[in-house]
Specification:
Strand order of the largest sheet: 1-2
Number of strands: 2
Largest sheet: 2 strands, antiparallel
Distance between the termini: 53 Å
Shape: globular
Number of helices: 13
Helix content: 40-55%
Strand content: under 5%
Structural class: mainly alpha
Order of helices and strands: HHHHHHHHEHEHHHH
Radius of gyration: 22 Å
Length: 322
């Protein structure tokens, strides 16, 4: 009996030691930089056991969508940005209007311009078939942004996962916190700093404008060769007319030549901030350095105020709460 008690006690001690070791390795091993001052329980292997095929499913849907419409890649990178800047990276931007929710889709930075929702819907439907109520919409948005970058010729990165979905949206935060594309560099830097991002992140993430299009109503003066002098407000003009569907450093080269599309693009060089101007020149000369920082800044942005653990929920349909 004494031997049994000794064996049992030994098992308990071993179990406690192993548990403590795993907990410590979890906390210390995945200490990714975050948009704020806190670290969050996000780590790349989050779905390793519960849904190991998650990225394969996302990429499969994404490849078909981009083949059908190459602009989808830019849509989804922008969707991630607009989600994270309003209330954190919690998929709140995906919620439709309801009796209790005023959708962020109707906010000024998003209305009639934010796209790609149906691609996220398809990813979610496929993931619900494979792994019901497991993969959050917030993680799908983050995975789709990374996949869009890679499929457009840009860098890959190790993506922390484990975000949960919000039960609320913030129309007010979308209007207040998503920076407007205006030629005010100080205001842009302030908007990024509110999210725990810095001037380097601003310049690097602005490089995402190397793919995608903008309406002529916004860029008539900078894209005269594409936009009609009158009318055609909704005509799409390429943000980067050199390689509009490839994520590369030509965006920064165009800025150096005075061909930035949006006022918020050109001001990175002309806004009397030495660091921003020097970064534009550096990234124009060295695509590898741009790629390295873009990847770091995307991870950092993706860690803005996520819901984790028992916060929020995993939505079954990304457009509405469970």
């Amino acid at each position: 009996m004494a031997v049994f008690r000794g064996t049992l006690l030994g098992l308990v001690v071993v179990t406690l030691v192993v548990s403590a070791t795993l907990s410590a390795s979890h906390l210390d091993g995945f200490n990714f930089g975050s948009g704020g001052s806190q670290t969050h329980d996000l780590f790349p292997q989050f779905y390793q056991s519960s849904c190991p095929q998650v990225n394969d499913i996302v990429i499969s849907v994404l490849q078909r969508a981009i083949k059908k419409n190459p602009r989808v890649a830019a849509f989804l990178i922008r969707l991630h940005f607009h989600d994270c800047f309003a209330q954190g990276c919690d998929a709140s931007v995906l919620l439709d209007n309801s009796t209790t929710i005023i959708s962020e889709k109707g906010a000024e930075p998003n209305v009639n311009s934010l796209r790609g929702f149906e691609v996220i819907d398809e990813m979610k439907a496929k993931l619900e078939e494979a792994c019901p109520l497991t993969v959050s919409c917030a993680d799908i948005v983050a995975l789709a942004a990374r996949g869009s970058t890679v499929l457009s010729g840009g860098p890959d990165w190790v993506l922390p996962l484990g975000r949960r979905d919000s039960k609320t949206a913030s129309f007010e935060s979308s209007n207040r916190d998503i920076p407007a594309p205006l030629p005010d560099l100080s205001a842009l830097i302030t908007a990024f700093e509110r999210q725990g991002l810095d001037e380097t992140d601003l310049v690097a993430l602005s490089g995402g404008h190397t793919i995608g299009f903008a309406k002529c109503s916004f860029v008539r003066q900078t894209r005269k060769s594409v936009c009609p002098r009158r009318g055609g407000d909704n005509t799409p003009a390429p943000l980067d007319f050199v390689s509009p569907t490839r994520l590369d450093n030509s965006y920064f080269k165009l800025i150096l030549g005075g061909h930035g599309l949006l006022p918020s693009d050109q001001v990175l060089l002309t806004g009397n901030r030495r660091q921003a101007a020097e970064l534009v020149k550096t990234y124009a000369a060295n695509e590898s350095l741009f790629f390295q920082q873009f990847a770091k800044s995307m991870v950092k942005m993706g860690n803005i105020s996520p819901l984790t653990g028992f916060e929020g929920q995993v939505r079954k349909n990304c457009r509405r709460v469970n």
